[in-house]
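User: Predict the complex.
Assistant: Input components as received:
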Amino acid sequence: MIRIYAGLLLVTPFLGAATVDTPKLVSLRLLPEQRTLHGKKSSQQFLVLGRYSDKSERDLTGQARFTVTSPASARADEAGRVFAVGDGETALVATAGGLSARASLKVEGSGIDRPFSFPRDVVSIITRRGCNTSGCHGGIKGQAGFKLSTHGIHPKEDYKWIVEGGVFQVLTEEAGGQKKPRVDTKTPEQSLILQKATMGIPHGGGMRLQKGSEDYDAILAWARNGAPYGAEDKASNPKVARLEVFPNNVFLRAGEKQRLLVTAFYEDGRAEDFTHQVLYEPQSGVVSVSAGGIVEAKKPGEAGILVKAVGNLVRAGVGVLADPMPNYPQVSRNNFIDDEVFDKLKLFSIVPSDLSTDAEFVRRICLDLAGMAPPPGRVREFVASKDPRKREKLIETLLESPEYIDYWTFRFADLFRVAVFPVGINPKWTQSYYQWIRDSIAANKPYNQVALERIAAQGYSAPSRHYLPYFVIPPPQDGMGEQVRVFMGRRLDCAQCHDHPYEQWSQDQFWGMAAFFGSMFKLGSNAQGVVFDHPGGKEIAADIAGAKDYRVLHPRTKQEVVPELLDGRKIPYTENNFPRMELAKWMTSHPYFAEAAVNRIWSYFFGRGIVEPVDDYRSTNPPTHPQLLARLAKNFADSGYDLKKLMRVIAQSRTYQLSSRAKPSNEDDVVNYSHALPRALDAEILLDAISDVTGVPEIFSMQLPDAPDSGGQAPRGTRALQLKETDIYHSPFLDIYGRSNRFSVPERNAKPNLSQALHILAGTTYNDKLFAKGGRIDGWIERGTSNSDVVEELYLAAFSRTPKPQESAALVKLIEKNPERKEALRDLMWAVVSSREFAENH
Amino acid sequence: MIRRGCISGTRQEFGRRDFIKVGSLGFLGIHLSQALQLEAATGTRAEGKAKSCILVFLEGGPSQIDTWDPKANSAFRPISTNVAGIQISELLPSLAKRMDKLALIRSIRSFGDDHPQAMHYAATGHLHIPAMQFPSFGAIVAKELGPQKGMPPYVIVPRWERNRQYQDYFKSAFLGPDYDPLTIPDPAGKNFQVDDLTLPKSLAPAAVENRRAFLDVIDGYYRDSVKNVEHAKMDAFRQKAWEMILTPSVRAAFDLSKESDKTKDAYGRDTVGQSLLLARRLVEGGSRFVTAAGFHGNSWDTHSDNDKGHRDRLTPPLDRSVSALIDDLVDRGLYDSTIVVVMGEFGRTPHVNPNLGRDHWPICWSLALGGGGIKTGTVVGKSDERGAYCVERQVSLGDIFATVYKAMGIQWDKEYMTPVGRPIKIANSIKDATGEPIKELVG
């Protein structure tokens, strides 16, 4: 059964009801409902959809019969493709299951050959045959000396490589190698491009064209005609502005088929059927797609299908459903997040885990909102409370707590890279930058404002004094790349040296964006320096380093680049113009901005983004829950980019509050939020937690081992996540647990490693704290706490739960076995802070 | 290809499940011999004479004309070596007597005008791109050859206590934490011990047994109820750590007290000497790659008074310690299976700046390598009369990597795929060409 969902919401009425009755065909529709065919040989593929009594729709194109009411105008083939015959108006009628549907047709200029266009008539063949994918000649440097633009994004360059020959070079526009044309207009059959593609000459890419095929003949005819480019004016040869695929999201059951319709929209607004002129690339084995665009569902799962044509790319999503689960349980929902997440789980017959226990929840929410596990008293109080709204209330308490400010300042200090570099340190810079973040978090400053301040900062404002290693302004491309990754979630960086291999970002667009950061220079000495943008068009003192030349040059063309937004709008440097501010306004109001922000914040609560990695949105790396992302983003934008409101809606969702205990149907799931995925605590949080549980605070010293004292300690009692300039404090623990070096984003690598394991077993952090005086162990001994009370308190402090009776009994027994009680308590303490239950947020 | 977002592809990492199995036996009973068998079954075995590599890293960038490529614009004289026709700077008298054990490359071209970029380039062979992370040379060797004898395959000694971003360049990036270097403190430090490899004095092995008994109880419940956790890999590392601490041969490999005073003196009782001595012990124990980075606090970055720095501070430990290392490896029959590479991240300017210093110079510089079956007693490439530009046989770091790979039996033209599907050459030469093994050295 095929279901097509238009619009935003998934409708799933039919899934729970495994009805005995076979749904009946109620009506038929034929798509597109009307279409004009322009020119000789033009054609249109049609799609027949049957609507059933259970409100589902299925593709009946394969079973339908097609007739054209006026054969003088057009003819239809068995598969539902209509070809122009003569000018006039007519209709296509499709019949299936005793019903019929009509589409109106108009044929114009049926006697006129369309003007030849190299992009449309040749590059589209090259694209459809997969010659210019990024893994082949469309790769960065091409393949075997032959370079084509990825998916034909630059047809003029493709023309040059084919007609003139030569080898692409990354760093210059000059062609390298031999200038041997790949098309031979004198003996067209001998053209290299045809011989290679037909394996007449050995070809690493294998057979791409059959001799005598339509595509082969088209290229041959082009060569015979003298290999022209064709008219370049918009009127006779408009460019394809975008592609559309229908359906763009569909659910099938294994074995079912679905025809896709692909429409190209030209820049002059005209539409043309491209269903048979594109390359379909399924991204997993969940489906297969025929050359003509018929999808076949193979096995349960999700797959994207990339549809590629002349410099354009669009994606269709297909979900292949598992058999419906009988008695799928009713799961209650707290807000729209749950609607999105649970609808999808149900579609794929995955049952979400139970709601977390109070103990699970209290630890998780405290770690996620405040960066620390709750103290035992808080846990007891929370678990004992009978208030039905206690979770909501706890969330509010935490959002307004001082720990919230510490924790989120720490998170953003990492992301925004509050760094100190050892050469000529001027801590004032770092501290004012840190303070700007802290103030922004404390005031819950709208996030678009935060971003605007950071992107456009200049002058004496705090964020302008950031991340300048060695007090050097970063190269414009690095500065821009980072801002786009952080605030728009895209890695434009790949387009720095070449067109982006997976996206439609060109190298020109990259440098157009980089040029916004080209006019930054530093005024004053290293100690006092302040960042300013060159006032465009004005002369400034020639002796100010870096201010002499604010032009950014394109690395290949060596031409000056004018700042240009991704939408093509140019913002040149002119007097009293501040392009970087224009960029900041554009970025923070772009839809990408809210999406990237909610995705990043989401990842802090779930251990992964809806797009993961969080700064790598691509059509080849789509969100797992596109509607959820869209709704979160809209919600966030509507709230005035309020971070606390965003965190609140996430924390209140049942999805967030699910248990980490898996169920049989969900234990393999890691991307659909069917249960909480335990994740390792970050270095600082783990260290603070060890200090809390052992009752021995960490001392942060700037002194290196064996070095003379180089300048003191952080105030006693400072928590790791409160350190303003983390890198000036020597801490092997933080290093091996992957604290950020704040040198570049992504911020940190918290993967478990051997050094951590060695440190747990024998390292100083663990062992010194066990032997330090005045800690929790000493307190127990002084107070004469019983062994079972010791175990209970420790469990509450470390795991926010009480021990199971059998755990308590076993541990008390182990303590009693050791004649030295203090030693036994140390062993117990070591085991608790070394355990995975402690080191993970679950 | 399995993509994120696929329900069917809920587990992406290749081999993860196997790892989890090892882990879940983990603390509860897998033995070292079993762990080693697993290694043997999964690790890549390669033919090639060289089994390991020591990178003697001259942080800061030595002056080529004051070391391997003497010129008239150096303040120092050239001296003859034990190889006829090869002269090096008088600042390296001991190494001159061992020239037959080294090959010199005098025409290295690298990239990066400042330390961060150049260090990244030296560690990985790639230009630094903010959106990407590249695996280091050492991590690649560790991955390709695999661990042996329970030893960590890749070690950095001493670790960077400052400038941690440099150390990050020497990591494994997307290859994963199995191939990250174990980083250890300065072996010339006052109370040197590999802190995390030595149980505290207060902790007898019996007490460790007690701790394990506690942990078995405590983690048992969690382990049973929470499955499929990324962090579960910790169990396997913990097991490995445990075995390392308790395996006498592994602990011994890190124990410098087993060396005689005579040997320690020969290497020199400073950071450079003791790091190299430890590197030799580690390689002997089974480590595949050791980055001996003894010049963190004594950098070759001589922007002022280059000559004094090279003469008094820098070349003496280099000359003494590398000579001792070569002698020691030869005496122990290890030089045939151990490659030694001596290099910095760039060279220094042929001209002197107003502070009598020499600045950064990636355009043309020199390095030395030998051992592991590499042909030695020879010079590859030539610089001009001032040591400023390469005039013959320009060699890239990708070529050096390829040379070491070939000597180790590693396929040097291999590419790895990053998680986003961008191919990365393990030996990356200039203009994205594939590095070529230097034929004069590895035939």
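Chain A touches chain B through 102 residues (CB under 8 Å).
Let me know if you want any component modeled separately.
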